[in-house]
């Protein structure tokens, strides 16, 4: 009885683990390393912009300082977005 | 001050602080440390007035009023030392258990006095094969 | 079923080895389908381990003593809750728990990243399965939880009475969850180093796992401290014991890590530092797992030497050399993207905090391992002990608390001097007010370090309070919400920030409790007879009457104590010492009871300001002659009974056991009717409860920071920004 149970589990494991190997056709292409990197950088940059805003609203940054930081963060974000557009276009093309 | 010089200064400061900490640590360890000895080592090396940490297994115990008298055996040799101890006795303390106790030699005889509250007992071994239990 | 269990362990091992091969082959040559197969191997491992664990638990719950571990750690008289949790009180069961938890978290991270970080995951999978292979082979071949015996005993040894405490039962799963969760960012760091994908991707996908590891590990450590305080008879919660330190070290490194990764995410700095930190944390986690069961360090918990030492040392050696080699190999890719702008910025505060935490870890590591270091260098084991920690840890802890209050008050990148003044005014004032008030209260100035902690703690709590208040005010300026709603929305929309602030506040409360209870404790060791009393810190503690209980399981002697202050009754406390019979019959039928396990029940009154802690240590000398006498009488009677024909012998022995129970009962009775003096340890400690309250606040803050943002909300936020930026572009 024990033996049968083990065999059944073994069969299930082999089935599950070998499924990708029995696949026919191409797997969906992955987004690509560079695009993934840029998207991660974009998320991080948005977060930085939000953090700077919150810092300003809770009085840790003066208006002048905030504007300077916000401007440079926005510029950095735009660079990332442009690079991202470029990478996506390159991929599609 | 240009950035690379600033960084060099910061690195130097950090490393110096780390070095100071490390030196203080090493100094404290070697000066405040107490030797951890087995029963046989204790019998050979103990000097009256100096504290040592005795490690070994308890082979007998009895109460003497508020003090606890027990003998600690050497893990390898058939030698044991008597200890007179006052203070907290840990829950797992029993004959056959491993203990650590800070002791000092009293005078020229082989009686060792345990430092107040310095007794620690090894928890009964969960992680060893259960010693043969009879039912 | 034991055979099925064993087979499952071996199957799990096979699946792990296959998974390593498939993942690596897929990464190097074979393509995505082999990588996918490797990932599915992890899922399969999780399934197999779950089944194995269920089989073990089932054996415990039905008290199947053919399983050696069940016979060794449980009994029919063990309550069900402790039967279930006894599974991990053994070496074998705890290792199985480790692998099982590892397989679960690994499956989770691989499922969540199945379409992301495709370069890194195969190597991360291989590392995780490498750990699974190691621990799996230990359980399959060296510490088999499914080992059986052909002649199962009729009764098990039972759970060590010291472990019959809820905290102690959740403590291992919490610790192991922490350790195994740390393996995730560790594995992804290795993968990132190998594939040179050293931007923040590997951090972003594993950030929550690192935070969860931090949370669980911290809770596990605090549960251990609570167990020590309420269950063990020494009245403390932390002894700087090697096993305690073994769990604290990875936790400190993990705390440093979850802060410094924020800097890498924002500024692309500290790449070498972060990689080293997580590799160190993972290694310390395995070291912690090893220390507890190796016996290499003398500690009250080091459970004697075991055969598992050598494999662990090899694994640790591989982890350390591999980590160092990888970092040196990839050092070019680990260069920073930018510099630290200013020493007055949140980045700088994080950096200092990291240095302090790593410093603390180093101190603890050195002092803990010093006996081995000195033995290697000089031939003698030199032990330094708890007093060595204080001169280093206390100042470092004070600096840490200070930084945890400064951090929330400073902005990223740089600060404006004028705003600095405005931000610091209230918290600093609060700290100074605390200083003045405490100096006026007598006696506090004699403990400068504790005083410093109280003031810095107040500073931190005030700074967190101010930040919450300012955040609510800023939100209300935008949305006109009522205060409660604004508060909730503020936290919901900035979970990482405010969750973190709440953790800081909780930490301040906890450390205030630690400072108070260690510096201002009153402890007395007294011998009392019924009716006598002792005075401790203004509390009059009277030994009212003795109590005793005798069952087949244990005999306990105890006392009822009355606590009064200023003439008014405060609390009635009960403390007992229980004696569990040993199994060895040569100790005597009666004597067995007094030579087995002992356990104290502490009499504790936990208050918001003061804890009153009592424990009794009854002296058995007065009844020793009775015990000896009883042993001899029963020995003679047993021998006489054995000489009778079997049927009569059986009946006689049953009578004798009944007589034994009566004798034990009589001894218990004697304690109550003719009590003799007993030793009591009486401790009055201030603010101990603040430690547990602080811990709860930390846990809440950690959960808030951990809680995932709903995907929909995230996408909305991103597209809003994209729209705004698009306008700028145009």
Mean pLDDT reading of chain C: 88
* Biggest interface and residues each: B-C, 47 and 64 residues
Low-confidence stretches of chain A: none
Order of strands in the sheet with the most strands of chain C? 3-4-5-6-7
Topology of chain A as a string of helices (H) and strands (E): HHH
For the secondary structure, the number of strands of chain A is 0
Distance between the termini of chain C: 70 Å
* Shape category of chain A: elongated
Rg of chain A from C-alpha positions? 25 Å
Please give the count of helices of chain C: 21
Distance between the termini of chain A: 60 Å
DSSP, total strands of chain C: 10
Question: Would you tell me the overall average pLDDT of chain A?
Answer: 84
* Computed CA radius of gyration of chain C, to the nearest angstrom: 29 Å
Name the beta content range of chain A: under 5%
Shape of chain C: globular
Uncertain stretches of chain C = none
Number of continuous helical runs of chain A: 3
Class from helix and strand fractions of chain C: alpha+beta
Features:
heterotrimer, A: 93 residues, mainly alpha, 3 helices, 0% strand, C: 730 residues, alpha+beta, five-stranded antiparallel sheet, four-stranded antiparallel sheet, 21 helices, 10 strands, 10% strand, globular
What would your notes on this structure say?
The complex is a heterotrimer of chains A (93), B (135) and C (730). Chain A has 93 residues and is mainly alpha-helical. Chain A is built from three helices and no strands. In chain A, 26% of the residues are buried. Chain B has helices at residues 3-32, 39-45; strands spanning 34-37, 51-64, 67-73, 80-85, 98-105, 112-114, 120-121. With 135 residues, chain B is of the alpha+beta class. In chain B, strands 2-3-4-6-5 form a five-stranded mixed barrel. Chain B is elongated. Chain C is of the alpha+beta class and 730 residues long. Among the domains of chain C are: 1-164, no CATH class; 522-688, no CATH class. Chain C has helices spanning 2-30, 32-61, 68-73, 80-85, 91-112, 121-142, 166-195, 201-231, 242-267, 271-294, 309-329, 346-378, 390-406, 417-440, 448-479, 483-493, 495-519, 624-643, 646-673, 688-706, 711-729; strands spanning 381-383, 522-528, 533-536, 539-550, 555-565, 568-579, 598-601, 603-606, 610-618, 678-686. In chain C, a hairpin with a 2-residue loop joins strand 3 and strand 4. Chains A and C meet through helix 1, helix 2 and helix 3 of A and helix 1, helix 2, helix 14, helix 15 and helix 21 of C. Strand 1 of chain B pairs antiparallel with strand 1 of chain C.
């Amino acid at each position: 009885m024990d033996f049968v149970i083990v065999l059944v589990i073994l069969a299930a494991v082999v089935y599950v683990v070998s499924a990708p190997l029995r696949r026919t056709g191409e797997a969906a292409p992955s987004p690509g390393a560079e695009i993934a990197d840029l998207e991660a950088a974009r998320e991080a940059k948005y977060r930085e912009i939000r953090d700077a805003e919150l810092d300003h609203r809770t009085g840790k940054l003066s208006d002048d300082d905030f504007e300077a930081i916000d401007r440079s963060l926005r510029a950095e974000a735009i660079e990332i977005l442009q690079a991202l557009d470029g990478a996506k276009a390159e991929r599609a093309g | 001050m240009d950035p690379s010089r600033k960084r060099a200064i910061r690195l130097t400061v950090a490393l110096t602080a780390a070095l100071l900490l490390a030196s203080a640590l090493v100094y404290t360890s070697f000066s405040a440390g107490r030797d951890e000895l087995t029963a046989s080592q204790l019998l050979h090396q103990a000097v009256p007035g100096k504290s040592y940490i005795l490690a070994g297994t308890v082979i007998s115990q009895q109460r003497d009023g508020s003090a606890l008298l027990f003998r600690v055996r050497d893990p390898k040799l058939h030698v044991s030392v008597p200890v007179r101890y006052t203070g907290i006795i840990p829950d797992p303390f029993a004959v056959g258990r491993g203990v650590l106790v800070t002791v000092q030699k009293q005078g020229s005889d082989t009686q060792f006095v345990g430092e107040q509250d310095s007794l620690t007992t090894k928890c009964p071994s969960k992680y060893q094969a259960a010693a043969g239990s009879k039912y | 079923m034991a055979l099925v269990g064993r087979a499952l362990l071996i199957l799990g091992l096979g699946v792990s080895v296959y998974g390593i091969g498939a993942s690596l082959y897929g990464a190097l040559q074979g393509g995505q389908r082999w990588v996918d197969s490797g990932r599915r191997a992890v899922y399969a491992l999780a399934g197999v381990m779950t089944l194995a664990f269920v089989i073990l638990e089932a054996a415990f719950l039905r008290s199947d003593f053919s399983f050696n571990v069940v016979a060794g750690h449980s009994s029919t008289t063990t309550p069900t809750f402790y039967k279930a949790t006894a599974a991990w009180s053994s070496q074998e069961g705890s290792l199985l728990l480790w692998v099982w938890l590892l397989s679960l978290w690994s499956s989770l991270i691989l499922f969540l990243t199945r379409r992301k970080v495709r370069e890194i995951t195969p190597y991360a999978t291989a590392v995780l399965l490498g750990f699974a292979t190691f621990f799996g082979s230990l359980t399959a071949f060296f510490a088999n939880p499914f080992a059986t015996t052909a002649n199962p005993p009729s009764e098990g040894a039972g759970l060590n009475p010291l472990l019959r405490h809820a905290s102690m039962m959740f403590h291992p799963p919490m610790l192991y969850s922490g350790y195994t969760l740390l393996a995730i960012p560790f594995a992804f760091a290795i993968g990132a180093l190998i594939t040179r994908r050293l931007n923040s991707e590997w951090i972003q996908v594993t950030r929550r796992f690192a935070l969860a590891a931090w949370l669980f590990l911290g809770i596990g450590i605090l549960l251990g401290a609570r167990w020590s305080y309420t269950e063990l008879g020494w009245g403390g919660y932390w002894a700087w014991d090697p096993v305690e330190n073994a769990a604290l070290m990875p936790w400190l490194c993990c705390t440093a890590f979850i802060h410094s990764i924020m800097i890498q995410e924002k500024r692309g700095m500290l790449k070498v530092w972060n990689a080293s930190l997580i590799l160190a944390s993972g290694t310390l986690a395995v070291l912690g797992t090893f220390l507890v069961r190796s016996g290499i360090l003398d500690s009250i918990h080091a459970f004697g030497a075991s055969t598992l030492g050598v494999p662990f040392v090899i694994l640790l050696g591989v982890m350390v050399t591999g980590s160092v080699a990888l970092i040196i190999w990839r050092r070019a890719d680990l260069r920073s993207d930018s510099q630290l702008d200013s020493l007055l910025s949140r980045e700088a505060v994080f950096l200092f905090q990291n240095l302090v935490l790593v410093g603390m870890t180093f101190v603890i590591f050195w002092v803990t391992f010093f006996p081995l270091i000195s033995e290697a260098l000089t031939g003698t084991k030199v032990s330094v002990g708890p007093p060595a920690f204080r001169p280093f840890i206390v100042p470092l802890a004070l600096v840490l608390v200070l930084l945890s209050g400064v951090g929330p008050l400073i902005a990223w990148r740089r600060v404006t001097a004028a705003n600095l003044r405005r931000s610091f005014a209230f918290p600093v004032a609060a700290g100074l007010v605390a200083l003045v008030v405490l100096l006026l209260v007598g006696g506090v100035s004699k403990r400068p370090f504790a005083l410093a902690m109280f003031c810095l703690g107040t500073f931190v709590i005030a700074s967190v309070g101010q930040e919450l208040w300012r955040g609510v005010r800023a939100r209300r300026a935008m949305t006109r919400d009522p205060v409660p709603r604004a508060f909730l929305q503020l936290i919901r929309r900035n979970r990482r920030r405010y969750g973190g602030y709440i953790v800081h506040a909780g930490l301040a409360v906890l450390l205030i409790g630690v400072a108070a209870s260690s510096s201002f404790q009153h402890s007395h060791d007294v011998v009392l007879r019924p009716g006598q009393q002792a005075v401790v810190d203004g509390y009059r503690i009277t030994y009212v009457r003795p109590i005793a209980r005798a069952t087949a399981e244990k005999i306990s002697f105890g006392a009822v104590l009355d606590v009064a202050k200023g003439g008014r009754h405060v609390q009635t406390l009960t403390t007992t010492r229980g004696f569990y019979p040993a199994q060895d019959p040569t100790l005597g039928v009666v004597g067995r009871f007094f030579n087995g396990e002992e356990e104290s029940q502490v009499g504790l009154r936990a208050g918001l300001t003061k804890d009153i802690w009592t424990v009794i240590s009854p002296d058995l000398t007065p009844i020793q002659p009775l015990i000896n006498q009883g042993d001899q009488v029963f020995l003679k009677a047993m021998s006489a009974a054995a000489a009778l024909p079997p049927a009569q012998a059986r009946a006689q022995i049953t009578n004798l056991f009944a007589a034994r129970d009566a004798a034990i009962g009589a001894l218990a009775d004697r304690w109550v009717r003719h009590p003799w003096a007993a030793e009591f340890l009486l401790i009055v400690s201030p603010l101990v409860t603040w430690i547990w309250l602080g811990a709860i606040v930390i846990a809440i803050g950690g959960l808030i920071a951990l809680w995932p943002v709903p995907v929909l909300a995230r996408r909305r936020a991103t597209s809003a920004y994209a729209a705004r930026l698009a306008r700028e572009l145009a």
